[in-house]
Amino acid sequence: MISRYSNLLFLVIILIILHLHGCCARKSKSNNDQCTSSCGDIHNISYPFRLNTDPTTCGNQNLQLVCENNLTVVYLDSAKYYVLSINYNNFTIRIVDALIQKDNCSSFPRHSLNLFRDQYWATPYLWYYWPGEAKYYAEYYKSIVLVNCEHRILDSRLYVDTHPCINSTYYSGYWYIMLRSRSTYVRDLVDSCRVGQIVMASFLPKEAMDISYLDVHRIMSYGFEMSWFEACCDNYEENRCNLDIANITENCYDTRVTIYYAVKMLNMSKGNGRDFINEVATIGRIRHINVVRLVGFYAEKSKRALVYDFMSNGSLEKYIFSEERSNLITIEKMYEISLGVARGIDYLHRGCHMKILHFDIKPHNILLDENFLPKISDFGLAKLYSTDESIVCLTAARGTMGYMAPELIYKNIGGISHKADVYSFGILLMEMVGRRKHLNAFAAHVSQVYFPTWVYEQFNKGKDMELGDNVSEEESTMTKKMALVALWCIQLEPIYRPSMHEVIEMLEGEFENLKLPPKPSLVPQDKRKEDVGINNGSSEPITIPGDCIKSESESESISLLMNNVN
């Protein structure tokens, strides 16, 4: 079950597309060019900021700063922060907790990121909603975790002692800095300890044996940067804000790093938002190198958007079906991609405390990063089930025609299980081998129409697959291995398909150890057009009404998120 605190982290995420920022900034700034204020060391307070003493026409009312005792102050959720600098060139403002004094290591921050309670700490971005309806702040942050313990920790590489700066004379218990890594969880805390404060910082201390609390305090006293953006989607062309999938880069500015995101805007006219809720509920709990990472989401009225890590090489579809030589990738790289996708699906099936069935594995949903590392994406049709359930229930069959497992449509073939994803992966694998759609409606001969049948006949007759010139023996073996595994995956009856764990073993094992499966059946492929009435050539996901009740785990996660989004 997704905890409310975990969901709160996602609910504060606000997406503002970078190239839209300029359209609003130019429009609004024209009326504020003459407004510039100063307070203490901050001499350049201008649009979009304003001092509370400025005329009402200056800056934005929601981005108001206050001058107190010749110090520039900003309040976030009633917490007081000092403004240390404003950089209008890269849209950053650096602030620090008002209680942290640079030359006094006993000064202690009092404002904590409570949203991180019981949350996996490796999430590296937080988007912060600035009070008001019009404008938003985006925070690029890293965090320092202060831990309070009942007893002194004598020996641990995870902790940095704050003594003598902070001692039990003024603060209860013993305070430590907990050094974190991507593998650190809240459950790694010593039993007698709890998370006391989570403080934002611009950079983290290196995990070294000789680090001291003075080093950490200097980092905290430097403060942290926030980047501001404007929500101008309402003032932009409606069709530009209502894209189905828009891989638009967003730039989150920091003085040391530039980060890009992929933004998926959802067209809410197509449904009531259940797919959106489902995707957030599903992918929000996943941490795997072969699954795209959800940075967060935005939900306001009819607008829905998801933010992912930006995948610079786009989707696998571009490299499978493209005829452009610039999009060609080697057989070895294609094999590595297939293995990565298999590992990602296996993780979904076995690696989480809930079993996650994707139901829409296809080239369009496999994204590739700058190193062509594959990432499974688009969990809009995914479902969560207990790991004890071998056969699952669906309210409707779901998937993309041509990639859907036959049991999703034909009930007499077998029950619906994780083997549905195995079938889809088999079709994907077959397309990676042939660099073509597995079903070719324009083929001159029926034997060429269904590519897997042709592949089976090649193996059955002991013929080599035609792979072109300059293909090494190792590459030939990789291709044949992928093709043979694909034939196993697309068996008509689920019982004869391997699990994804077995698929990985087959791909990593020796080709000589693989046996030829039964001949794949063409019948379900022929009947789908007639029975469902949908063009097999379409890559759009569909749902076909069914008569099964949702699983308890699915209903629980969706209703919980609905309460938080509405």
TrEMBL record:
Ranges for domain Protein kinase: 214-511
Signal peptide: 1-25
Topology term for the membrane: Single-pass type I membrane protein
Keyword Transmembrane helix: yes
Chain spans, region Disordered: 518-543
GO molecular function: ATP binding; polysaccharide binding; protein serine/threonine kinase activity
The organism's place on the tree of life at top rank: Eukaryota
PROSITE patterns attached to this UniProt entry: PROTEIN_KINASE_DOM, PROTEIN_KINASE_ST
Entry's localization field: Membrane
A single GO cellular-component term on record: membrane
Keywords for this protein: ATP-binding, Glycoprotein, Kinase, Membrane, Nucleotide-binding, Serine/threonine-protein kinase, Signal, Transferase, Transmembrane, Transmembrane helix
Protein name: Protein kinase domain-containing protein
